[in-house]
Amino acid sequence: MEKIRAHLIIEGRVQGVFFRHHTYRKATELGVTGWVKNRWDGTVEAVFEGEKDRVDRIVQWCYRGPSEARVTRVDLQWEDYKGEFDDFRIAY
């Protein structure tokens, strides 16, 4: 199975709505590695690595987010797979 890496900046009402926590749960459920964090400008940033179909699923989920969120824009960059993560974590 092909492995890929996605780097996202998610804009909208994405802080204060447990976006990071829900992303962590979804990534762990899918077996995707990487991290998610709040940024100083009110956006959420995430990096996902793993099997293509699983990363695609979490990326699509990020366009919606949890029910409390209102995602208005996602800046998605596909990057070379690095295999640098052992798990998924919330970064600070």
Question: Can you characterise this structure?
Answer:
- The protein has helices at residues 19-30, 52-62; strands at residues 3-13, 33-38, 44-51, 70-79, 88-90.
- It is α+β, with helices and mostly antiparallel strands and 92 residues long.
- A five-stranded mixed sheet has the order 4-1-3-2-5, with helices on one face.
- It has one domain (3-90): Alpha-Beta Plaits (2-Layer Sandwich), CATH 3.30.70.
- It starts with a strand and ends with a strand.
Summarize the structure.
With 92 residues, this protein is α+β, with helices and mostly antiparallel strands. The protein contains two helices and five strands.
Compile the SSE list and pairings.
Blueprint: E1 3-13, H1 19-30, E2 33-38, E3 44-51, H2 52-62, E4 70-79, E5 88-90
Parallel strand pairs: 2-5
Antiparallel strand pairs: 1-3, 1-4, 2-3
Radius of gyration: 12 Å
* CA(first)-CA(last) distance: 31 Å
User: In total, how many domains does the architecture comprise?
Assistant: 1
Major β-sheet profile = 5 strands, mixed
CATH architecture: 2-Layer Sandwich
Strand content: 35-45%
Class in CATH?
Answer: Alpha Beta
Helix content percent band: 25-40%
Structural class: alpha+beta
CATH topology: Alpha-Beta Plaits
How many strand units?
A: 5
Tally of alpha and pi helices: 2
- Compute the average pLDDT: 97
Low-confidence stretches: none
Strand order of the largest sheet: 4-1-3-2-5
Task: Name some characteristics of this structure.
single chain, 92 residues, alpha+beta, Alpha-Beta Plaits, five-stranded mixed beta sheet, 2 helices, 5 strands, globular
